[in-house]
Amino acid sequence: MQRITSLEQYQTEYKHSVENPEAFWAEQAEQFTWHKKWDKVLEWNFDEPNVKWFVGGKLNITENCLDRHLADKGNQTAILWEPNNPQTPARKISYKELHQQVCEFASVLKNNGAKKGDRICIYMPMVPELAIAVLACARIGAIHSVVFGGFSFKSLSDRIYDAECNIVITADGAFRGAKDIPLKSVVDEALQTSPSVKKVIVLKHTNTNVVMQNERDVWWKEEVEKLNLTGIQNLSGFKAEIMDSEDPLFILYTSGSTGKPKGVVHTTAGYMTYVDYTFRNVFQYNAGDVYWCTADVGWITGHSYLVYGPLLAGATTLMFEGIPTYPDAGRFWNVIDKHQVNIFYTAPTAIRSLEALGLDFVKPYKLDSLRVLGSVGEPINVEAWNWYHVNIGKNKCPIVDTYWQTETGGIMISPLAGITPTKPGFATLPLPGVQPVLLNEAGKELIGNSVEGRLCFKFPWPGIIRTTYGDHKRCKETYFDVFKKYYFTGDGCRRDEDGYYRITGRVDDVIKVSGHLLGTAEIENAINEHPDIVESAVVGFPHDIKGWGIYAYVICDHQRKDVDALKAEIVQTVTKYMGPIAKPDKIQIVSGLPKTRSGKIMRRILRKIAEHDLDNLGDTSTLLDPAVVEEIKAGAVK
Ligand code: WTA
Fold first, then answer.
1. Is residue 323 scored above 70 in pLDDT?
2. pTM assigned to the model
């Protein structure tokens, strides 16, 4: 498959994609295996919204990820797995083996009652079986909903409940650095409030003791072995379910401004076309390259650029179970040398934390296999960009700063590696098919360069969100009603004098903590589970390593003298209900919160106090009790 090879070609292709989007995307979709080609490329309006790509087409995405490559890449490594413990041998799974294992597990799912359209929750460590589970769901037409293994039981049960999943696929536990994290027991707790779940399939991984519930819980391995016993010897012929282009492929929950998580729905053909095109062009993948995306499959980056994008392109995708600092802060660089990684895609938080630990961890490694570096998930500051460029890329690897969202399915604004001239801190230019606009608060388009506003897109691309599961109104209100006729990202953005885009950050009530999108309301709900807390308000504050940290203002219902113990309990409560990623960095106990007369918390004021910008609180005269602001200012946590 061809890809863009020069800046001129990018410009021509971009022009073509905007002038004739349907022809452009149809050309990209031609290469795939279709059971039936589409009748119409695109049908859309942003009012309902209703977006359909490749209308009437019939296909299965796993035939395009796997079967299509068997003839010429059957023996090539599809998934290269690097375990948490460097002493444990790495695993290489060829396209042929992956195909076989996906077919087997698809059959296991069927035997356990799964069928097309079911929602299946996947809560697993970063092991190849996670990718196998994802693909097996897609093989049988079940909709996967992967929940990040760092989330705890309440977040997990909320997500299972919302999607009414009937099966959960999990493991006994996960290894993360020196820790051994239980997963199955978290599932057990979550299932106490999830009546829809009938089966739990458990992979043995850490050998932690687990309680298996009769009838409901089965072991992954035993179920696969049963297949052979029942005489299905050659499963490579396992027929993929034929799906409609617009049949849902997966739900992925993301945080929103209410405590209830939003199930972003992506469908089959458009998502497939978009992630394949963006993967090949942004990273400039060459046959034989080893590509490594460090994101967890529990996030969209893992879905699009660890599993689907690379496999659609017939690439070798490296999957890493561990963390950047185990056994020491040189692990990433060690793995790059060990597996001769050519393309490396990670998050600014990881770069900043490794930078802070010093170059001694980088020096022992050659890093000479690297050709392309990538960044994703949050704005990368100029200092981290330069450190990455000089010390990891040795001044010779282009950095692709890729801007996108769970809702966009794939990368939207990014350099093409080695083709688009880069500028530190800038996501640079839109990819072909992407039409960004900046709007002012009144919704007026800002024309020309050197402008800053709210980032929107004015035309659909194939990877765009179709709905939020079970609640189309929420999708409409969040993304399509804020500015009529536009998809609104929730991000602020600047277009500089060269027409380059620089994302300035969220303009709504979600915070990017270490690149993870967290809703303040969901964190507040977790804090409020503490019996002594009556109310809380969470805001973000700038954090050197994490990008943003979590600052919680809490009201206690009676005087607790042991303030430090109370704070520790709050942290524990959040960890228990939501997970360690949502732990507050700073907690301030207050007697009241700044509220308007109608009872709305004035977060703007709380944000300013958390940032120690005490002299610019703005107008506080509309507050019910302005005195409370003085008290909060006086007690602000440094
Ligand atoms: C932020 C992650 C600046 C942005 C793929 C967006 C970025 C949110 C970048 C989506 C980038 C992502 N530069 N900010 N290169 N990439 N963001 O859904 O605020 O986890 O709206 O998807 O991350 O986060 P999500």
1. yes
2. 0.96
